[in-house]
Structure prediction request, 246 residues.
Amino acid sequence: MADERRSLAKRIELAATPEQVWQAVSTPDGLSLWFVPHENAGGEIEGDFGGGNSQAGQTLELEPGRRVVFGAPGPDGVPPMTFEFLVEGRAGTTELRLIQNGFFGDDWETEFDGFGRGWDMFLHNLAEYFRHFPGLPVTNVVATAFTARPGGEVWTDLTTRLGADPALSLDDQVRLTPDGLDPIEGVVDLRGDRLLGIRTENGFYRFMSDDIHHMVNTSQYFYGVTVDRATRTAAWQTWIDGLAGV
Prediction:
């Protein structure tokens, strides 16, 4: 079994019903609302992390409406990593707990930091979805590239090419102008070390780079509007590849 000592736990209170939260963590359509695009693939649930990178898993344990565990069995039939979601109703809100057990490599403490940072962003997406776009369907655009360039250098190039002021803070109004792509207008709703999130009238833009996974990424969510996903994904993948030096 996954080493219980190597676990990561997150907890968030959401302005939604337990039924809404359950839908968001237990189905491909629900996971796509705030995480990465998911779909059913041959009896498994497959997530698209961009740049041709995908990960498939199975529902390992299920208590409908309350608890679900996802994982992909390894060569010995035991999943090296599992993701558990627990849903519990409160007075007018719902508490969601996430527990990740197991990590990919030997340097699990570094992975712990990287996964924790990623989960914080995605769970923020879920909270903001219920706050601003409840009930609306999503179209996802995700682009990812791996790079040998230092993360700080990549991030400086990313913000420069976006036309983003390095001093941007939470709640600042912005208009970003990525080369060759449509402008992005909205408010900064996420800001951290090599992390920038913009909430627009119709969704979210997320940008991130790091030295842990040696990657640069954008995840974008468009709610209740028509978006040409394939064309937009290809355009942003080209843009991200340019940053990575691919």
Remarks:
- Residues 67 and 86 are 5 Å apart (CA to CA).
- The domain at 1-135 is CATH 3.30.530.20 (Alpha-D-Glucose-1,6-Bisphosphate; Chain A, domain 4).
- Residues 108-132 form the longest helix (25 residues).
